[in-house]
Amino acid sequence: MYTLGIETSCDETSASVVKGAQNVLSCVTASSLKLHAKYGGVIPEIASRAHLESICGVVDEALRSSDLPLKKIGLVAVTQGPGLIGSLLVGISFARSFAMARGIPLLGVNHVRSHLYAAFIDHKIGFPFVGLVVSGGHTSLYKVKGLGQEELLGSTRDDAAGEAFDKVAKILGLGYPGGPVVEDLAQKGSAGAYALRCDCGAGLDFSFSGIKTAVLYKANHLKKMFGSLSHDMVCDLCASFQDAVVSDLVAKSIRAAKSVRARTLVVGGGVAFNGFLRRKLREAADLNGIRLFVASRSYCLDNAAMVASLGARLFRSGGARQRLDLDPLAG
Ligand code: KG4
Ligand code: ZN
After folding, report:
1. pLDDT tens per residue across span 159-209
2. By alpha-carbon position, which residue is closest to atom 23 of ligand 1?
3. What are the CA-CA distances from residue 235 to residues 123, 192, 242, 276 (Å)?
């Protein structure tokens, strides 16, 4: 079966055609990132208007480059939330119309779950596993016993990890989004330069707002002492911050796997694009005898391939409701 996936939960308009659940025939993504950059974060109204402008072209291009006749598409899977309501509505309205016009089923897919299962596109992964979703909106650990059987083990009490990267970048005047630029500058800095740590409670919850404030205080202190922040200071702050966040994510993921006796760890979400996090996860997993599967970089940031892939799996398993009156936020 061929599935058309549509994702519009935030600032990416994405469409993808997937054969079965793993063979991605096309994935086309347009981003309105540049329109938000000057505001230092995503402006919901701008994002939904940009989705409206690009959705037809993006779906068209995904269908065209899949080289499939339209009649071959047997299912539409669309992100049903959580996300920005206006943005979700554009994707869901389009998906609903497409499904009605073609007379095919429509399935809503939870956005966090689509990140959780994104590594399944390129890997054969068995159950049970512990899953870490680490993105701009979410930082959560799950115990997953089977498809659709996710039990929340811990999540952030305040900011998500990606949000912390974005806020630290803003504090340091590095623009939006923060993840890529902070990672880049961190490579030139020293992680031991400043003593920054995340609030590491003994449980499996996360907290990243404290470290963001610590970076702010440190930056202000340095500015007071030296008049301004040098490039080296910025690089050292990025490296120290990234090291603290990554150490916390890795330590809690391993702790979670051990606490539920899972031998497999699966990671997805925009922050999983980060090379330092990927390396540290690999080292810790090897050290602890845990099988690690991190989503391929193409499927870390918001994309419709992960939506189509999970939609196809859920549809096949029969565990999903197909309906045209999808509630955009009930994913
Ligand atoms: O999954 P995603 O595309 O959207 C959400 O569902 O939130 O993740 C976006 C987040 C942003 O906060 C961005 O700064 C972060 O992922 N990100 C990174 C990197 N690339 C993107 N964080 C750390 N290192 C990166 N290289
Ligand atoms: Zn996402």
Report:
1. 999 999 999 999 999 988 899 999 999 999 999 999 999 976 789 999 999
2. 179
3. 35, 11, 10, 15
